[in-house]
Structures are given as structure tokens and as C-alpha cells.
Write a structure and sequence with these properties.
Number of strands: 15
Strand order of the largest sheet: 3-4-14-9-10-13
Bound molecules: pyridoxal-5'-phosphate
Number of helices: 21
Helix content: 40-55%
Largest sheet: 6 strands, mixed
Distance between the termini: 36 Å
Amino acid sequence: MLYSSTRGLISSASFEDVALSGLAPDGGLFIPNSLPDLSHLYDTKEDLSYTDLALEIFLPFADGIVPKQDLKTLIEKSYSSFRIPNVVQLTTAGKHQLLDLFYGPTFAFKDVALQFLGNLFEYLLAKNNKQLTLIGATSGDTGSAAIYGVRGKKNIHLFVLHPLNRVTKIQELQMTSVLDDNITNIAIEGSFDNAQAIVKEIFSDTQLRKTYNLGAINSINWVRLMAQVPYYFYAAREYRKKVGTDVEAFCVPTGNFGNIYAGYMAKQMGLPIKKLILATNANDILHRTIQTGKYTVKESTPTPAPSMDIQIASNFERYLYDIADKDTKLVASHMEDLKTGEFALTQKERDKLQSDFCSYATSTEEIYQYISSYNEQGLNVDPHTATGLCAADQFDFQNVICLATAHPSKFGDAFFKATGKKIELPSVLQELEQKQTSCIHAAADINAIKDIILTILRENKDLDQ
Ligand SMILES: *Cc1c(COP(=O)(O)O)cnc(C)c1O
């Protein structure tokens, strides 16, 4: 399989380039040149475990780069860190089924992709005798999932920038209690936006990018999206077994359009889904785009579901590339227009968008209401999952799977606000309080951060020589 950039200057990148470089050199996002038809994976009544499905789904994409036996080993290693054997599971939530995706080491769905990506990085780097430097900004969940994905991995150093005192205590401890030499936590005196702007600026330094082989760990890395496809197939098969009929729609709490784009790929690969329900919170840019055909950036609003407080959904560019029939000029012109804060879809693009997705923007009040009413029925859900459950109720589908993206105890404050009750932390998270931590504090200043990063990277280089 070869990969192209959504901006049109690259058309034959390898799986390895895509995995290790993140963004394409022309500033676009990588996308495979075709998608395999894997409908037999749904049609067959044969028993398939989660890892069986993952192997069949990843194989065509990694073809020629990772041999089947190695891929199988990587997958098995990645998912042995989960607390249940089949990685994810369905639970009943009233008339819907919930797909619980939070059984990985950090109790959030991002583990599903990042546990695999960390192992894949290590494998590809060893094969090519290369080193990789990862730099990411986080508002909470991505950082800890990335850290647990690459901690202790050879030839990788990860720097994670988080806004000082603006992530939850648990999220902070999950990151800073990891003491492996290849992990550096940096707390910025500023906001998440400051942290992200600094990371973007570091990436725009082409010299630095080359010298230290900078790579991406956020969902602009296509491998993360690929690694989220298996649970759509797995869940649809489990649904058929449990409910006795085919699932019609998946409802996905959406921020950066990564998770739902994986669902869209599953559909393109032959999973018979009628619709994807896109749930946003008050940060509703994607909901407005589906309604009006205009992608208009507004100020972001803090909500109880912070991992969805996103105004620019990077992965939407991949979908634009598909609906523009690979017309990279049209994609590039949308992205150029976006610099002014808005672009408008063509009528054709808009029709396609509305045929694939329906959407709802769940208000903050509704998020609390849903947490509380599910709690009364004996089921605890986190604020992101509640956003999705509320969205699913706006439509007439009888057979819906709602994605549960985080463990409710990770958002104890929101839970308390909604129910007046304290939610107990799982013991692994409770134990974090006693652990030693390590974190560098720094001003939100590009030069200060660059200095910190370069000093550590140079020390590592000296140690190697
Ligand atoms: C990241 C995240 C989301 C949003 O996923 P996207 O792939 O960015 O759309 C939703 N819920 C939780 C808990 C998350 O961590």
C-alpha cells in the first residue's frame, strides 16, 4: 500500500514514512491510495478475536513493510496491556449499547491506538537503525496515553507539554509519575493553546525536524486512525451476536474527527453501517458544518468534556480529500480559506457529508443531565460518553452503538457536579498519589522550551557515542 498527501505533492509514501513522519512534507495529511474491501470480516460467522481482526485489518496497510508474523507479535504485545482479553466490550445502556473503550493503561480510548503505535515505532526504528523524537502538546488524555505508549521504548524520546495546573490532578499524576529516561514532562505556565503553538513552531523549524527526526504522536498520524478501525468491526459483530440484528449507526463523541474518521473508514472497507452520528459539545464546529456547509472557526468554550473542546478538527481534511474525489487543489483552497477563519463546502461535498453523518451539539446542561440520569439507572458514564448518549437520542435509529471514550472516574469533578456523589478511583489510579513524580516547569516561551528540549537531546546523543 502506498500513501498520498491531501495537499497533492506526495503520492507514493510508504507505510514507514507515514508512521514515522506524521505530517506530509507539503503540510498535508497522509492517506492510503486505496482501501481494501474487508466485508468478509463482518459477513463470516467464524469466531474472530479482537487481535485476529486487527491483524486482518492492518495487514493490507503494512504490506511489504511489516511481515505478517511480526505484525501479529506487535499486535499481541500491544493488547496484552489491556485489562480485558478482547480489548473492548459492549455493555447495555438503556436502549443503546455502549462500546467501552477504556480498558487500557490510562483508562481512555486513546490507549487502543497508542499502545500499538509505540510498539510499531520501536520495531520500525530498530529495523532502520533510526532515532525518533516525539513532541506533543496535551490538554490531558493524549499526553498520558502517548507516554504509556512509548515509555521505555528504545530509540525514542518523548516530550509532552501540558498547561500547568490546567489538567486534572489525575491526568497530571498519570503523566508525571512515569519516570522512564525517554519521557520528559514539561508544564508550561500558560494555556493548552500556548503549548500547542509552541509545538507547531518547533515543527516548523525544518533544520531541527531533520536533525532530530521529529515525529507526530497526535491523530494527524494516520496509523492512529488505522488502529481504531478494528473496534468498529469487533463491536458490530458483537452487537449481532448479542442483539440478534445488525447495528445501524455508531455514535461518536468527537473532537479532532479522528475516532469518527476511523468509523468512516470501517464503512468504506465494507462494514454495513447506515450512518455515523457525530456528537459534539458546545464546541460545535463540525455540527454547524454538517448543518450549514460552512466550516467557521469560533472561540473555544470550556466544557465538562475537555477532550472535545476543539475548534479546528485536523482530521476533517482527510474526509475533505475523499469527498472532493481526491481533488487536492480543492482541499488546498479550503485550507487556504481557513486561514481567514472559514471555508464553504461545495454543494456536492455538502450532500456527501450529510449522507454519511448526522450530528448533534450536546449542551453542558445536557451532559450533566445524562450523567445523572444514567447514574440513577445504575450506570456511570463520563462526560464525553454522556455527550454521545444524548446525541444518539435525537435520532430514530433503533440499533445504535455509542462509543464510551473514557472511564467515568477520570472525570470525578463533573460526576460530582452532576450527581452530588463521589466516584471511586480504580486502585491503580489511587496509587498514583504515592508515586514519585518528575516534571520541568517552564515559561510559555518558544526559546526557553527549545533550550530544554535541545539540551536533553544533546545529552542523549553524547551518551550514545
Ligand atoms: C480524544 C478524546 C475524544 C475525541 O476524539 P477525536 O478522535 O479527537 O474526535 C473523545 N473523548 C475522549 C475521552 C477523548 O480522550
